Amino acid sequence: MKLKTKKLDASVARRIAASLVAGSLVFCTGSFAFAADKTVTPDNYEGGDIYTVYSNSDGDEKSDNTLNVNSVDTGGQRVGGGEGDNGNADRNEVTVRDVTSIGYLHGGYPYSGNGSASYNKLWIYNSIMQHIHGGHTDFGVANYNKVYFYSGDVKELTGAGYANSGEANFNELYVFGGTLNKLTQGGYVLGSGYANGNVVNVYGGTITGSLQGGYVEGSEIGRASCR
Questions:
Q1: Is the pTM of this model over 0.85?
Q2: How far apart are CA 29 and CA 143, in angstroms?
Q3: Mind listing the pLDDT tens digit for each residue in 35-78?
Q4: What residues contact 153, with CB distance under 8 A and at least 6 apart?
Q5: In what order do the strands lie in the sheet with 172-175?
Q6: Using CA atoms, how far apart are residues 151 and 124, in angstroms rounded to an integer?
């Protein structure tokens, strides 16, 4: 599937929510905002992954952080608001501008256990990366995450909410420009779980590969819907 919308006038911009699970195409509305605070630039970047909080202590909170990364080449490293073993990673906000070679961009990521990765927000401008997830959890919930993609290039996967097994509900992805390759999703569950109420809004840019509002890989439990 190849979707191109660069020539659409702003007054007739399309908002698309699609789901391979639901087998339907529906249209939705939405809004967006902007937030920025702490900043990493070439002047203070010393290499490696970029986080506001990283903790391997079981149960540590990795929430309520803000990160702004400008004009940095990460060399394939990870960029995120909060990451670590278990615990919650909620309400993080990350903005990247003119950043290249990001391996994995996320708002919150408790990479083991049932920690929550919800209510995170990402803003992407003229940046290049392999993967995007607004919120990513192992066996917990990744709900109500929002990703605003204005320009740049994603090589592999773009998602607002992602769970290995669990829930990825009511996530929103906004595409205004740039190129998204291979997989573009509002909410995605790799194993069994639920992916309900997810939305992908497309106003411009180019999407290649599959476009899904919500998708559950490991079972038939799950559906996508427009709010």
A1: no
A2: 18
A3: 335 889 999 998 899 988 887 666 667 899 999 999 999 999 99
A4: 128, 129, 178, 179, 181
A5: 39-40, 66-70, 93-97, 121-125, 146-149, 172-175, 199-202
A6: 7
